[in-house]
Amino acid sequence: MNSIFAVLLGYLLGSVPFGLILTNLFGDGNLRSIGSGNIGATNVLRTGNKGLAAATLLLDGAKGFAAVWLAWRYWPDAAGLAGLGAVLGHCFPLWLKFKGGKGVATTFGVTLALGWPMGLAYAATWLAILAITRISSLSGMTAALAAPIGAWLAGQAQLVPMLAAIAAIIIVLHRENIGRLRAGTEPKVGKRA
């Protein structure tokens, strides 16, 4: 039962669509009709509002962190499952007909809550690839793939299956981006769609 409660807690927290809420609140248009139509920070950036994009990034990370932190207080053995639930909630929110974001920022919050070295390694990978390529999708996928490897290297093998599942979700949700990367047409950060 603890595992079920942890996943449900994570899902509910993860499904709060901060990008959509902020863009509606500040009159930056319907996020669902801009760029990819996703609710994450990269798509919010396509509105041209860098402040809202940064706020979305922080809030999406915070909900992943909060899910793991709260689960750790009540169901410590199921904290990782709360993280998985948060990513699922962000990517497939019930309130938005299961069409949300791609889970990269939420996964950062999850990894940070599971262990700050893992979170910093995730962020460093993300930022390094972004600085080199300026391609958000590539940096997000690389960081997601690095997370289970980092957990294994850090001696936290129990987290590897959950982080590998999250990485698989992120990769699948980026399948269109992968096609554009192969074709050389993937947009760079800051470019309006």
Mean pLDDT across residues:
92
Structurally, the number of domains stands at: 1
The secondary structure category is mainly alpha
Estimate the global geometry from the Cα principal axes.
globular
Low-confidence stretches: none
Number of strands: 0
Main β-sheet description: none
Distance between the termini: 44 Å
The helix/strand series, from N terminus to C terminus, equals HHHHHHHHHH
Q: How many individual helices?
A: 10
Give the percentage of residues in beta strands: under 5%
Radius of gyration: 16 Å
Q: How much helix, percentage-wise, in residues?
A: 55-70%
What's the arrangement of secondary structure elements?
Layout: H1 2-14, H2 18-25, H3 41-45, H4 50-74, H5 79-91, H6 104-114, H7 116-133, H8 136-153, H9 160-173, H10 175-183
Task: Explain what this protein looks like in three dimensions.
The protein is an all-alpha fold and 193 residues long. The chain has one domain (2-183). Helix content is 69%, strand content 0%. The protein is built from ten helices and no strands. The longest helix has 25 residues, at 50-74. It is globular, with a radius of gyration of 16 Å. The N and C termini lie far apart (44 Å). The mean pLDDT is 92.
